[in-house]
């Protein structure tokens, strides 16, 4: 029988205290495994990994070390055929990369959802500052339909034509007969045929903000054009605009198509709030 001599006395090659036993103990300590001597007897009986009543060879001992569950995987007393994939050399890195990729995807999805909510909330806030003139501005030069209060029943209350011009409180529509109709925005009941776009609030600037309904009516009074003025209740006043005040019109009322003679003219004052629309006759 082979005897190995050490500084502390002879050591048998096999069995408890032998070279194979100490090598197995050292290997178990290096990989974090308990050795049979450090495991209670009750655990050895419950765990088939430990063999009782017979000698265990070096090869079988090494195989049992390889089959022993790694820390944190299988529970105490459970055997495993092979180490889990995350503890292998290549499988571990793949599994960690998949975990980090999944975390990155979740983070990106969360950021995208927060951005969508923020954009929708900002769009709602910006829409609260839009005016009707901002909504109509991109449609200048295009055809649309405008429901206007005070239009004759023959037109069914709908004005169809091209939006020729637009101000802060008025719009000018040109129909197929090239007739122009000046409509205050307060007389507009509905507008159809608009695009989904809108201009930025305040796009008209300081100069455009001064070109209100009174400014346009003063231009008509300067031209001495004969007009047809529709009132809010549907009645029509034919005549020539003489002057424009802060909140009223001075109109020389006369029959349509007749010259303005003093004996045929009757002065008429119309509040601006009562004007539904105005059309030039000539």
How would you sum up this structure, described in words?
The protein folds into 2 domains: 80 residues, no CATH class; 148 residues, SH3 type barrels (Roll), CATH 2.30.30.100. A hairpin with a 3-residue loop joins strand 9 and strand 10. The strands form 2 sheets. It has a 10-stranded antiparallel beta sheet with strand order 7-3-4-5-6-12-8-9-10-11. Strands 1-2 form a two-stranded antiparallel sheet. It contains 7 helices and 12 strands. The N terminus is likely disordered. Helix 1 runs parallel beside helix 3. It is α+β, with helices and mostly antiparallel strands and 282 residues long. Helices cover 32% and strands 24% of the residues.
Describe the sheet with the most strands: 10 strands, antiparallel
The name of the CATH architecture of the largest domain is Roll
Give me the side-by-side strand order of the main sheet.
Answer: 7-3-4-5-6-12-8-9-10-11
Distance between the termini: 135 Å
- Number of strand segments: 12
Mean pLDDT: 75
